[in-house]
Write a structure and sequence with these properties.
The chain is an alpha/beta fold. It folds into three domains: 6-79, Roll (Pdz3 Domain); 99-295, pyruvate-formate lyase- activating enzyme (Alpha-Beta Horseshoe); 305-369, no CATH class. The chain has helices at 16-19, 39-45, 117-123, 134-142, 157-164, 172-181, 200-210, 241-262, 271-277, 299-312, 332-346, and strands spanning 6-11, 27-31, 34-35, 50-56, 62-68, 77-79, 126-127, 148-151, 186-192, 216-223, 267-269, 322-327, 349-354, 362-364, 367-369. Strands 1, 2, 3, 4, 5 and 6 form a six-stranded antiparallel beta sheet that branches. Strands 7-8-9-10-11 form a five-stranded parallel beta sheet. A two-stranded parallel ribbon has the order 12-13. Strand 12, helix 11 (332-346) and strand 13 form a beta-alpha-beta unit. Helix 8 packs across helix 9 and helix 10 runs parallel beside helix 11. It starts with 5 loop residues before the first strand and ends with a strand.
Protein backbone atom coordinates (compact mmCIF):
# COMPACT_ATOMS: atom_id res chain seq x y z
CA UNK A 1 0.00 0.00 0.00
CA UNK A 2 1.34 3.45 -0.90
CA UNK A 3 1.52 5.99 1.90
CA UNK A 4 -1.08 8.24 0.24
CA UNK A 5 -3.79 5.73 -0.49
CA UNK A 6 -6.53 4.32 1.68
CA UNK A 7 -7.92 0.88 0.80
CA UNK A 8 -11.63 0.65 1.60
CA UNK A 9 -12.53 -2.38 3.68
CA UNK A 10 -16.24 -1.74 4.25
CA UNK A 11 -19.14 0.44 3.06
CA UNK A 12 -22.11 1.41 5.19
CA UNK A 13 -25.43 0.37 3.55
CA UNK A 14 -27.16 3.27 1.83
CA UNK A 15 -24.12 5.51 2.24
CA UNK A 16 -22.99 8.23 -0.18
CA UNK A 17 -19.99 6.13 -1.17
CA UNK A 18 -22.21 3.18 -2.09
CA UNK A 19 -24.51 5.42 -4.14
CA UNK A 20 -21.67 6.83 -6.26
CA UNK A 21 -20.26 3.40 -7.12
CA UNK A 22 -17.36 3.06 -4.67
CA UNK A 23 -16.70 -0.59 -3.75
CA UNK A 24 -14.85 -2.55 -1.10
CA UNK A 25 -11.25 -2.97 -2.24
CA UNK A 26 -11.12 0.39 -4.03
CA UNK A 27 -8.30 2.73 -3.06
CA UNK A 28 -9.08 6.33 -2.10
CA UNK A 29 -6.13 8.32 -3.45
CA UNK A 30 -7.09 11.99 -3.10
CA UNK A 31 -9.86 14.28 -1.89
CA UNK A 32 -10.03 17.65 -3.66
CA UNK A 33 -6.46 17.14 -4.83
CA UNK A 34 -5.13 16.41 -1.34
CA UNK A 35 -3.36 13.20 -0.39
CA UNK A 36 -4.85 11.32 2.57
CA UNK A 37 -2.35 10.01 5.09
CA UNK A 38 -4.61 9.01 7.97
CA UNK A 39 -8.07 9.17 9.56
CA UNK A 40 -7.60 12.73 10.78
CA UNK A 41 -6.91 14.16 7.31
CA UNK A 42 -9.76 12.12 5.84
CA UNK A 43 -12.26 13.47 8.38
CA UNK A 44 -11.04 17.03 7.88
CA UNK A 45 -11.20 16.88 4.07
CA UNK A 46 -14.71 15.36 3.80
CA UNK A 47 -16.26 18.29 5.69
CA UNK A 48 -16.61 20.25 2.43
CA UNK A 49 -19.94 20.27 0.59
CA UNK A 50 -18.33 19.59 -2.81
CA UNK A 51 -15.81 16.77 -3.07
CA UNK A 52 -13.69 15.53 -5.93
CA UNK A 53 -12.63 11.96 -5.12
CA UNK A 54 -9.82 10.19 -6.94
CA UNK A 55 -10.46 6.45 -6.71
CA UNK A 56 -8.42 3.54 -8.07
CA UNK A 57 -10.57 0.52 -8.79
CA UNK A 58 -9.38 -3.02 -8.16
CA UNK A 59 -8.67 -3.44 -11.93
CA UNK A 60 -6.27 -0.45 -11.85
CA UNK A 61 -8.60 2.12 -13.42
CA UNK A 62 -8.66 5.56 -11.81
CA UNK A 63 -12.02 7.28 -11.46
CA UNK A 64 -12.78 10.89 -10.58
CA UNK A 65 -16.07 11.11 -8.72
CA UNK A 66 -17.87 14.37 -7.93
CA UNK A 67 -19.91 14.40 -4.72
CA UNK A 68 -22.31 17.09 -3.47
CA UNK A 69 -23.49 16.66 0.09
CA UNK A 70 -24.39 18.53 3.25
CA UNK A 71 -21.47 19.84 5.31
CA UNK A 72 -19.98 17.22 7.67
CA UNK A 73 -21.98 14.35 6.12
CA UNK A 74 -19.87 11.20 6.22
CA UNK A 75 -19.18 9.25 3.03
CA UNK A 76 -19.80 5.95 4.78
CA UNK A 77 -16.50 4.25 4.07
CA UNK A 78 -14.38 2.34 6.57
CA UNK A 79 -10.69 1.61 6.24
CA UNK A 80 -7.65 0.54 8.20
CA UNK A 81 -5.55 3.57 8.97
CA UNK A 82 -2.00 2.72 7.83
CA UNK A 83 -0.54 5.51 9.95
CA UNK A 84 -2.25 4.50 13.20
CA UNK A 85 -1.40 0.85 12.65
CA UNK A 86 2.24 1.91 13.04
CA UNK A 87 2.18 4.74 15.60
CA UNK A 88 5.30 6.71 16.38
CA UNK A 89 7.43 5.12 19.06
CA UNK A 90 8.71 7.07 22.00
CA UNK A 91 12.44 7.82 21.70
CA UNK A 92 12.80 9.11 25.24
CA UNK A 93 14.28 7.21 28.15
CA UNK A 94 12.43 8.96 30.95
CA UNK A 95 13.81 8.44 34.43
CA UNK A 96 10.25 7.84 35.69
CA UNK A 97 8.93 5.66 32.86
CA UNK A 98 6.44 3.12 34.18
CA UNK A 99 6.86 0.78 31.22
CA UNK A 100 10.54 0.35 32.10
CA UNK A 101 9.39 -0.86 35.52
CA UNK A 102 7.24 -3.72 34.22
CA UNK A 103 8.26 -7.34 34.76
CA UNK A 104 8.74 -9.65 31.82
CA UNK A 105 6.26 -12.20 30.59
CA UNK A 106 3.17 -10.01 30.18
CA UNK A 107 1.28 -9.31 26.96
CA UNK A 108 3.45 -7.67 24.33
CA UNK A 109 1.29 -4.56 23.88
CA UNK A 110 2.10 -3.42 27.44
CA UNK A 111 5.72 -2.80 26.50
CA UNK A 112 5.02 -0.55 23.50
CA UNK A 113 5.79 3.13 24.10
CA UNK A 114 3.90 5.46 21.78
CA UNK A 115 4.54 9.19 21.37
CA UNK A 116 2.08 10.07 18.60
CA UNK A 117 0.02 13.27 18.44
CA UNK A 118 -2.70 11.49 16.45
CA UNK A 119 -3.27 9.04 19.30
CA UNK A 120 -3.29 11.99 21.69
CA UNK A 121 -6.17 13.52 19.74
CA UNK A 122 -8.08 10.30 19.01
CA UNK A 123 -7.50 8.30 22.21
CA UNK A 124 -6.31 10.78 24.83
CA UNK A 125 -2.71 9.52 24.99
CA UNK A 126 -0.04 11.91 26.26
CA UNK A 127 2.87 12.96 24.04
CA UNK A 128 6.17 14.68 24.86
CA UNK A 129 6.55 16.53 21.50
CA UNK A 130 10.21 15.46 21.36
CA UNK A 131 9.80 13.65 18.02
CA UNK A 132 7.70 16.40 16.45
CA UNK A 133 9.13 18.45 13.58
CA UNK A 134 8.03 21.93 12.49
CA UNK A 135 6.14 20.22 9.64
CA UNK A 136 4.29 18.04 12.16
CA UNK A 137 3.27 21.08 14.19
CA UNK A 138 2.07 22.90 11.06
CA UNK A 139 -0.01 19.87 10.16
CA UNK A 140 -1.63 19.81 13.62
CA UNK A 141 -2.52 23.48 13.22
CA UNK A 142 -3.77 23.03 9.65
CA UNK A 143 -6.10 20.17 10.54
CA UNK A 144 -7.15 21.59 13.91
CA UNK A 145 -5.99 18.48 15.80
CA UNK A 146 -7.11 19.78 19.17
CA UNK A 147 -6.86 19.24 22.06
CA UNK A 148 -3.44 17.62 22.37
CA UNK A 149 -2.39 16.01 25.66
CA UNK A 150 1.21 16.96 26.43
CA UNK A 151 3.54 15.44 29.01
CA UNK A 152 5.49 18.50 30.12
CA UNK A 153 7.03 17.44 33.48
CA UNK A 154 9.17 20.59 33.60
CA UNK A 155 9.71 23.72 31.54
CA UNK A 156 13.34 23.98 32.66
CA UNK A 157 15.21 23.03 29.44
CA UNK A 158 18.22 21.42 31.09
CA UNK A 159 16.11 19.52 33.62
CA UNK A 160 13.71 18.29 30.94
CA UNK A 161 16.61 16.96 28.86
CA UNK A 162 17.79 15.09 31.97
CA UNK A 163 14.36 13.75 32.94
CA UNK A 164 13.52 12.54 29.43
CA UNK A 165 17.09 11.54 28.54
CA UNK A 166 16.60 13.23 25.17
CA UNK A 167 18.68 16.16 23.92
CA UNK A 168 15.67 17.38 21.91
CA UNK A 169 13.47 17.71 24.99
CA UNK A 170 14.55 21.20 26.04
CA UNK A 171 12.51 23.28 23.57
CA UNK A 172 9.11 22.42 25.06
CA UNK A 173 8.13 26.08 25.60
CA UNK A 174 8.81 26.97 21.96
CA UNK A 175 6.63 24.11 20.74
CA UNK A 176 3.82 24.94 23.14
CA UNK A 177 4.03 28.58 22.01
CA UNK A 178 3.76 27.64 18.35
CA UNK A 179 0.83 25.29 18.93
CA UNK A 180 -1.13 27.70 21.10
CA UNK A 181 -0.52 30.62 18.73
CA UNK A 182 -2.00 28.37 16.05
CA UNK A 183 -5.18 27.99 18.12
CA UNK A 184 -4.48 24.49 19.46
CA UNK A 185 -5.64 23.67 23.00
CA UNK A 186 -3.39 21.62 25.26
CA UNK A 187 -4.01 19.53 28.35
CA UNK A 188 -0.73 19.29 30.23
CA UNK A 189 0.61 16.64 32.59
CA UNK A 190 3.43 16.71 35.11
CA UNK A 191 4.74 13.45 36.58
CA UNK A 192 6.17 14.69 39.85
CA UNK A 193 9.40 13.16 41.14
CA UNK A 194 10.57 13.94 44.70
CA UNK A 195 13.55 16.26 44.80
CA UNK A 196 13.74 16.54 41.02
CA UNK A 197 10.91 18.56 39.47
CA UNK A 198 8.87 19.46 42.55
CA UNK A 199 9.32 22.45 44.88
CA UNK A 200 10.67 25.55 43.13
CA UNK A 201 10.88 23.69 39.80
CA UNK A 202 7.17 22.89 39.98
CA UNK A 203 6.37 26.54 40.73
CA UNK A 204 8.44 27.63 37.72
CA UNK A 205 6.75 25.09 35.43
CA UNK A 206 3.22 26.00 36.46
CA UNK A 207 3.79 29.75 36.19
CA UNK A 208 5.37 29.40 32.75
CA UNK A 209 2.51 27.19 31.54
CA UNK A 210 -0.02 29.67 32.91
CA UNK A 211 1.31 32.23 30.42
CA UNK A 212 -0.45 30.18 27.71
CA UNK A 213 -3.87 30.27 29.38
CA UNK A 214 -6.57 29.70 28.10
CA UNK A 215 -5.06 27.54 25.34
CA UNK A 216 -3.41 25.64 28.19
CA UNK A 217 -6.42 25.59 30.46
CA UNK A 218 -5.55 22.84 32.91
CA UNK A 219 -2.52 21.01 34.23
CA UNK A 220 -2.55 17.63 35.95
CA UNK A 221 0.11 16.83 38.55
CA UNK A 222 0.50 13.13 39.28
CA UNK A 223 2.99 11.29 41.52
CA UNK A 224 5.65 9.07 40.04
CA UNK A 225 4.70 5.41 40.11
CA UNK A 226 7.32 3.18 41.67
CA UNK A 227 7.37 -0.59 41.32
CA UNK A 228 9.69 -3.24 42.69
CA UNK A 229 11.08 -3.82 39.20
CA UNK A 230 13.51 -0.87 39.11
CA UNK A 231 16.82 -2.66 39.13
CA UNK A 232 19.53 -0.59 37.36
CA UNK A 233 17.11 2.34 36.81
CA UNK A 234 17.48 5.93 38.03
CA UNK A 235 17.20 6.14 41.83
CA UNK A 236 13.93 7.84 42.76
CA UNK A 237 11.90 7.55 45.95
CA UNK A 238 8.13 7.43 46.29
CA UNK A 239 5.99 10.15 47.77
CA UNK A 240 4.85 9.46 51.33
CA UNK A 241 2.55 11.23 53.77
CA UNK A 242 4.88 14.11 54.61
CA UNK A 243 6.08 14.81 51.10
CA UNK A 244 2.51 14.59 49.77
CA UNK A 245 1.41 17.14 52.37
CA UNK A 246 4.18 19.43 51.11
CA UNK A 247 2.99 19.11 47.52
CA UNK A 248 -0.62 19.83 48.51
CA UNK A 249 0.42 22.92 50.49
CA UNK A 250 2.51 24.31 47.64
CA UNK A 251 -0.06 23.62 44.92
CA UNK A 252 -2.96 24.96 47.01
CA UNK A 253 -1.15 28.30 47.32
CA UNK A 254 -0.71 28.45 43.55
CA UNK A 255 -4.30 27.41 42.93
CA UNK A 256 -5.51 30.31 45.05
CA UNK A 257 -3.38 32.70 42.98
CA UNK A 258 -4.76 31.34 39.72
CA UNK A 259 -8.35 31.44 40.98
CA UNK A 260 -7.97 35.15 41.70
CA UNK A 261 -6.83 35.72 38.10
CA UNK A 262 -9.05 33.38 36.04
CA UNK A 263 -11.61 32.03 38.52
CA UNK A 264 -10.36 28.45 38.30
CA UNK A 265 -7.47 26.49 39.87
CA UNK A 266 -5.65 25.82 36.54
CA UNK A 267 -3.59 23.05 38.19
CA UNK A 268 -5.09 20.02 39.92
CA UNK A 269 -3.51 17.17 41.85
CA UNK A 270 -4.15 13.48 41.33
CA UNK A 271 -6.26 11.76 43.97
CA UNK A 272 -3.23 9.79 45.15
CA UNK A 273 -1.63 12.84 46.76
CA UNK A 274 -4.64 13.37 49.03
CA UNK A 275 -4.89 9.68 49.82
CA UNK A 276 -1.21 9.41 50.74
CA UNK A 277 -1.41 12.61 52.80
CA UNK A 278 -4.59 11.37 54.53
CA UNK A 279 -6.30 14.62 53.58
CA UNK A 280 -9.88 15.12 52.44
CA UNK A 281 -10.34 15.32 48.69
CA UNK A 282 -11.44 18.66 47.22
CA UNK A 283 -15.15 19.01 46.57
CA UNK A 284 -16.57 18.03 43.19
CA UNK A 285 -16.72 21.66 42.00
CA UNK A 286 -12.92 21.84 42.19
CA UNK A 287 -12.58 19.53 39.18
CA UNK A 288 -14.65 21.51 36.69
CA UNK A 289 -15.73 19.23 33.84
CA UNK A 290 -13.23 16.50 34.83
CA UNK A 291 -11.08 17.21 31.76
CA UNK A 292 -8.26 14.96 32.98
CA UNK A 293 -10.28 12.20 34.56
CA UNK A 294 -8.23 9.43 32.94
CA UNK A 295 -5.15 10.86 34.62
CA UNK A 296 -6.62 10.25 38.07
CA UNK A 297 -7.69 13.87 38.54
CA UNK A 298 -11.00 13.80 40.43
CA UNK A 299 -11.69 10.15 39.70
CA UNK A 300 -13.08 9.41 43.16
CA UNK A 301 -15.37 12.45 43.20
CA UNK A 302 -16.60 11.56 39.73
CA UNK A 303 -17.33 7.99 40.83
CA UNK A 304 -19.25 9.26 43.83
CA UNK A 305 -21.30 11.61 41.68
CA UNK A 306 -22.20 8.90 39.17
CA UNK A 307 -23.34 6.51 41.89
CA UNK A 308 -25.37 9.12 43.77
CA UNK A 309 -27.06 10.35 40.57
CA UNK A 310 -28.02 6.80 39.62
CA UNK A 311 -29.46 6.15 43.07
CA UNK A 312 -31.94 9.01 42.60
CA UNK A 313 -33.63 7.16 39.73
CA UNK A 314 -33.36 3.62 41.09
CA UNK A 315 -35.88 1.95 43.35
CA UNK A 316 -35.49 -1.58 44.70
CA UNK A 317 -35.67 -3.62 47.88
CA UNK A 318 -32.72 -5.90 48.56
CA UNK A 319 -34.69 -7.64 51.34
CA UNK A 320 -31.66 -7.78 53.60
CA UNK A 321 -29.50 -9.80 51.21
CA UNK A 322 -25.70 -9.73 51.39
CA UNK A 323 -23.31 -9.11 48.53
CA UNK A 324 -19.52 -9.03 48.31
CA UNK A 325 -17.40 -6.28 46.81
CA UNK A 326 -13.65 -6.46 46.19
CA UNK A 327 -11.48 -3.34 46.10
CA UNK A 328 -7.86 -2.27 46.47
CA UNK A 329 -6.36 -0.54 49.50
CA UNK A 330 -6.04 3.05 48.25
CA UNK A 331 -9.69 3.90 47.71
CA UNK A 332 -11.28 1.42 50.12
CA UNK A 333 -12.42 4.22 52.49
CA UNK A 334 -14.30 5.96 49.68
CA UNK A 335 -15.82 2.70 48.48
CA UNK A 336 -17.02 2.05 52.03
CA UNK A 337 -18.68 5.48 52.22
CA UNK A 338 -20.55 4.91 48.97
CA UNK A 339 -21.58 1.42 50.03
CA UNK A 340 -23.04 2.81 53.25
CA UNK A 341 -25.38 4.97 51.16
CA UNK A 342 -26.29 2.05 48.91
CA UNK A 343 -27.01 -0.21 51.88
CA UNK A 344 -29.50 2.26 53.34
CA UNK A 345 -31.16 2.83 49.98
CA UNK A 346 -31.67 -0.83 49.05
CA UNK A 347 -31.85 -2.67 52.35
CA UNK A 348 -28.80 -4.83 51.66
CA UNK A 349 -25.50 -5.55 53.35
CA UNK A 350 -22.27 -5.07 51.40
CA UNK A 351 -19.21 -6.95 52.63
CA UNK A 352 -16.09 -5.19 51.35
CA UNK A 353 -12.93 -7.22 50.89
CA UNK A 354 -9.77 -5.15 50.59
CA UNK A 355 -7.08 -6.86 48.54
CA UNK A 356 -3.43 -5.87 48.88
CA UNK A 357 -1.98 -5.85 45.38
CA UNK A 358 1.65 -6.87 45.77
CA UNK A 359 2.33 -7.37 42.07
CA UNK A 360 4.04 -3.98 41.69
CA UNK A 361 4.86 -3.25 45.32
CA UNK A 362 8.31 -2.50 46.64
CA UNK A 363 9.79 -2.19 50.10
CA UNK A 364 11.50 1.06 51.16
CA UNK A 365 13.00 1.36 54.65
CA UNK A 366 10.69 -1.35 55.88
CA UNK A 367 7.55 0.30 54.46
CA UNK A 368 5.56 -1.16 51.56
CA UNK A 369 4.65 1.29 48.83
CA UNK A 370 2.00 0.67 46.18
CA UNK A 371 1.47 4.05 44.53
CA UNK A 372 2.30 2.74 41.09
CA UNK A 373 0.66 4.68 38.24
Amino acid sequence: MNRNEIVIKNLLPGSIAEEVGIEVGDALLKINGNDIYDTIEYRFLICDENLNLLIRKSNGEEWEIEVEKDPYDDLGIEFDDPALENPRRCHNKCIFCFIDQLPGGMRESLYFKDDDSRLSFLQGNFVTLTNMSDEDIERIIKYRISPINVSVHTTNPELRVKMLNNKKAGDIINKIKKLTEGGISLNCQIVLCPGINDGDELVRTLKELFQFYPHVSNVAVVPIGITKYRESLYKIESYDKQSSLGVIKLVTKLQNEFIKKVNEPFVRLADEFYIMAEKDLPEEEHYGDFEQLEDGIGMIRYFERCVLEDLIFTEADGKGREIALITGTSCSKYIRNICDVIEKKFNIKINIYVIKNEFFRRKNNGIWFNNSR
